[in-house]
């Protein structure tokens, strides 16, 4: 039967894609050759045909072994195998003596050419697949290398050990026990949390996230120093996203760790009711609480008119002692209005003891305690704990002729409400250049400018069109007074900025600065005022808590948004 006969089809097919049994059979090449060449083939051809079949079967063994390891590599091996099989076929044809008279041999050589052609087509198809696979492999390796490089750049402070961990992470081999390790202990690194499990997802998918999302870190403090590390509780990471965590300014409670012993009384002058109440409270504190009472020098002379009362109190007589008040005083009691609270705060150029403000004025925005209930109020405060509002103050420096010598500064002045720069008695427009840190803010042309704390937002700033701001909000208000411009809206800036207000040389007149409505200072062209939040806030005791007291003040003190309620549409009310 001729080899080209369709009856030989399965055999030829088997030669190209042998079954496992056939591959095993190729270990006996002679019997295999006999089945291919039933005719009289010269015995000399046998070794060559055996080498062809051995090569084919050897290559198939390589394919089988690589397929179990890696699909890409097995594709490459099978392509090599096809090419070599074709070459072996041609070698075989060249070496086999073919006689023109032997029709079987002619047919056989034709069949072998067909085999060679088939093998070439297979090889060409697989070469394209091989090229494509190689290209994907190259891209994958390039991407992996780039990711590794950027990870290592992000993690400048990593030790060698940590670099190894990182490399393991990139190659998806991070041991499960090492999930919380970070490159450094001093900063928050987002990839630290990116390695956390996403709830409900598999470990493998969480690793995929590491690959996609770039890592970053947050730090606090001026110009990269670590002073602000304690602020970590403001912001935290959750699965690599920034989220505000614990609020720093929850309601603050003051709890005494030892019994308070000394109370300073600050009283509004020229008020008979204040004088009477002051004497009564001093006696009560002495007799019932055994408290030392301190009063201002003028109070011991003018207010406590009876000798018995005067003997109950202590005072001081020079400025040096005033500076040391905060070291002796446990609690400050004020009797008056907001002006008395401002006055009390102004006595402390540094730390301020807690202030209990009794309302004996007309408005009393910062004076929540009812004076008629002073016994209960003082009882509660002296026992503690009680809520306080930490009221920020502004520290203000006047710099004379700033452009010539910035070192010639005056003592800083602390304000609880605001510093105002206005035109004073001048009839010219105030002209002020304003800077926030190193950025230019604007030029003020009008009656002036108010730089206010949030506590002061309900005072002069409110009258000039500024917003009312809860006193615990960390900010600085920038409110113009009668600006001669249609678009000068008030601003609220973050608490950490430093403001510089400068009277330019080409200003037509002088400006005037006043501090909580007092201590006016003239600012000549070239002078500047520098303001920033002071590190010494005023802790004022709350009647209820910070927010309740604030809202009560704007409702009862300012009658905020008071309006008759509309009746229903049917007109029945
Ligand atoms: N046009 C205005 O509204 C205007 C003008 C000048 C001064 N002031 C404010 O007066 C303050 C000085 O107060 P004073 O009692 O010594 O002077 P003052 O006796 O002239 O009283 C000013 C008024 O402002 C009220 N006040 C003070 N601080 C307040 C605050 N934080 N919130 C709400 N109201 C407040 C006082 O209760 C008082 O009714 C300045 O710090 C300034 O804010 C307001
Ligand atoms: N101990 C003090 N020594 C000197 N001056 C004081 C003292 N206490 C208060 N003052 C000043 O007295 C003025 C009036 O005080 P305060 O504002 O407390 O009372 P008020 O005007 O009756 O109250 P309100 O402002 O609520 O109407 C303010 O200018 C304040 O600075």
TrEMBL record:
| Molecular function terms, GO-annotated | ATP binding; NAD+ kinase activity
- EC number(s) in its UniProt entry? 2.7.1.23
- Looking at the record, which segments are called Disordered? 1-52
Q: Which GO terms describe its biological process?
A: NAD+ metabolic process; NADP+ biosynthetic process
Give the matching InterPro entries: ATP-NAD_kinase_N, ATP-NAD_kinase_PpnK-typ_C, NAD/diacylglycerol_kinase_sf, NADK
Cross-referenced Pfam families, in alphabetical order? NAD_kinase, NAD_kinase_C
Keyword annotations for this protein, in alphabetical order, are: ATP-binding, Kinase, NAD, NADP, Nucleotide-binding, Transferase
Q: Does the keyword Kinase apply?
A: yes
**What is the name listed in the Swiss-Prot or TrEMBL entry for this protein?**
NAD(+) kinase
């Amino acid at each position: 039967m001729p080899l080209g006969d369709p009856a030989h089809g399965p055999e030829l097919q088997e030669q190209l894609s042998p079954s496992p049994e056939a591959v095993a059979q190729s270990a006996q090449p002679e019997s295999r050759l006999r089945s291919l060449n039933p005719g009289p083939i010269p015995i000399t051809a046998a070794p060559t045909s055996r080498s062809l079949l051995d090569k084919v079967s050897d290559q198939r063994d390589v394919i089988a072994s690589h397929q179990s390891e890696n699909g890409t590599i097995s594709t490459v091996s099978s392509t090599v195998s096809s090419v070599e099989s074709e070459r072996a076929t041609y070698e075989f044809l060249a070496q086999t003596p073919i006689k023109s008279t032997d029709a079987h041999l002619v047919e056989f050589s034709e069949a072998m050419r067909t085999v060679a052609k088939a093998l070439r087509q297979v090889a060409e198809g697989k070469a394209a697949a091989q090229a494509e696979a190689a290209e994907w492999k190259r891209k994958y390796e390039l991407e992996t290398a780039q990711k590794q490089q950027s990870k290592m750049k992000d993690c400048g402070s990593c030790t060698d050990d940590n670099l190894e961990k990182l490399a393991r992470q990139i190659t998806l081999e991070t041991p499960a026990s090492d999930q919380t390790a970070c490159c450094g202990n001093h900063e928050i690194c987002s990839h630290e949390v990116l390695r956390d499990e996403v709830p409900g997802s598999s470990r493998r998918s969480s690793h995929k996230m590491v690959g996609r999302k770039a890592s970053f870190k947050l730090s606090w403090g001026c110009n990269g120093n670590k002073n602000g590390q304690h602020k970590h509780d403001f912001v935290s990471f959750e699965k690599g996203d920034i989220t505000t965590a614990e609020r720093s300014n929850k309601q603050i409670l003051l709890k005494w760790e030892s019994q308070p012993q000394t109370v300073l009384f600050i009283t509004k002058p020229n008020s008979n009711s204040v004088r009477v109440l002051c004497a009564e409270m001093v006696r009560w504190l002495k007799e019932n609480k055994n408290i030392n009472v301190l009063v201002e020098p003028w109070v011991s002379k003018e207010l406590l008119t009876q000798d018995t009362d005067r003997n109950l109190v202590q005072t001081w007589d020079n400025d040096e002692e005033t500076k040391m008040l905060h070291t002796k005083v446990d609690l400050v009691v004020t009797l008056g209005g907001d002006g008395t609270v401002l006055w009390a705060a102004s006595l402390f150029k540094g730390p301020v003891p807690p202030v209990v403000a009794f309302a004996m004025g007309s408005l009393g925005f910062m004076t929540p305690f009812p004076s008629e209930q002073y016994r209960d109020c003082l009882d509660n405060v002296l026992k503690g704990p009680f809520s306080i509002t930490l009221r920020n103050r502004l520290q203000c420096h006047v710099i004379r002729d700033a452009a010539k010598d910035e070192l010639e500064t005056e003592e800083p002045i602390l304000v609880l409400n605001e510093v105002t720069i206005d035109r004073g008695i001048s009839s010219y427009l105030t002209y002020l250049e304003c800077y926030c840190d190193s950025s230019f803010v604007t030029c003020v042309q009008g009656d002036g400018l108010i730089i206010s704390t949030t506590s002061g937002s309900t005072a002069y700033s409110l009258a000039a069109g500024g917003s009312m701001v809860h006193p615990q909000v960390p900010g600085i208000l920038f409110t113009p007074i009668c600006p001669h411009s249609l678009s000068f809206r008030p601003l609220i800036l973050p608490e950490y900025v430093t403001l510089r207000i400068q009277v330019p040389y080409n200003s037509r007149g002088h400006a005037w600065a006043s501090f909580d409505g007092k201590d006016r200072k003239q600012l000549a062209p070239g002078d500047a005022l520098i303001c920033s939040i002071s590190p010494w806030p005023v802790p004022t005791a709350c009647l209820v808590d910070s927010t309740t007291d604030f809202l009560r003040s704007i409702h009862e003190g300012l009658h905020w948004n008071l309006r008759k309620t509309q009746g229903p549409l049917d007109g029945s009310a």
